[in-house]
Amino acid sequence: xxxxxxxxxxxxxxxxxxxxxxxxxxxxxxxxxxxxxxxxxxxxxxxxxxxxxxxxxxxxxxxxxxxxxxxxxxxxxxxxxxxxxxxxxxxxxxxxxxxxxxxxxxxxxxxxxxxxxxxxxxxxxxxxxxxxxxxxxxxxxxxxxxxxxxxxxxxxxxxxxxxxxxxxxxxxxxxxxxxxxxxxxxxxxxxxxxxxxxxxxxxxxxxxxxxxxxxxxxxxxxxxxxxxxxxxxxxxxxxxxxxxxxxxxxxxxxxxxxxxxxxxxxxxxxxxxxxxxxxxxxxxxxxxxxxxxxxxxxxxxxxxxxxxxxxxxxxxxxxxxxxxxxxxxxxxxxxxxxxxxxxxxxxxxxxxxxxxxxxxxxxxxxxxxxxxxxxxxxxxxxxxxxxxxxxxxxxxxx
Length: 398
Known about the structure:
Blueprint: H1 3-34, H2 40-68, H3 70-90, H4 94-108, H5 111-121, H6 124-155, H7 159-178, H8 199-204, H9 211-239, H10 243-263, H11 265-272, H12 274-294, H13 298-303, H14 305-309, H15 314-323, H16 331-360, H17 367-397
Helix pairs in contact: 1-5, 1-6, 1-7, 1-9, 1-10, 2-3, 2-4, 2-5, 2-9, 2-16, 3-4, 3-7, 6-10, 9-10, 9-16, 9-17, 11-12, 11-15, 12-15, 12-17
């Protein structure tokens, strides 16, 4: 593997580590800063703020990298990430933590620039493999992040941020001395309309047959936000987990999900078909969520983890099914619109689930997982409706 790819993959892994390491320590950190135990809504706000900044600045950084070059944008984002973690390590007030999380979301929007860099330096026959490695590095970082955050946070609550700052600083130095420019800067005036993150959503409402598919993607993304928002709070309230056990549980889920996504979607789709692979995945997730809602001992969570991870087997199948509903010359527009829907879910989901958790926190912390089951149930008829629309469209085309 060449040196530029090592730097790019390191940046992606560190982005994922930065996302994951805060989950195990965030409840205790907010209690320490706000001097209150009612911190569920604040967690939702911090998680949503991160997603808002990603949503807004991913197209901005991508456009800037086209105009100014990939290297300067990546260097600035890496420097911003390192400085942000130093600020968060010593932030004494809530507004500073919120500012730091906003900067983290902005700097993590460099994923779009990293993808563009890989495209620049890869021939067409190598892109698929390298994009696969890109996703694998992100997955590995997200497995390591919670475990590292939980372990270090038990020694000192601010230590995970210092570790993240050091890692990002090392990656910045690597990029500064090793990473060459991969793209000749356009040096043209940037089209401000192209930076509007809501622009792709305008197109979808002109394609009524695609709306059920888009809503399914939105629901799947929104339910995924419940875990990052409520998992640590639930582990503390239900099982009195410390940071290490929260990190280990998130890491175990990451390992199981990575193995499932790497090994099972193809066989599951071949055996069940795309529609039923999605339905079976939703059913597995709901079974695990019901068990979690009523669990009274921590070992139950680890025991059901493989079933929980099976919930992701249908997502690749649904992505493949969705991609066939659009003409090849509009695939880029369609994929951009899907990403906008996912980004919006990443903003709305944390706010909704943190509010629900706050309402039921004292009476029944596990109730939040039943709310996720209800939302999954809404997705089931939309899956059937979307696939029925797909078959009707194909029949008319034939």
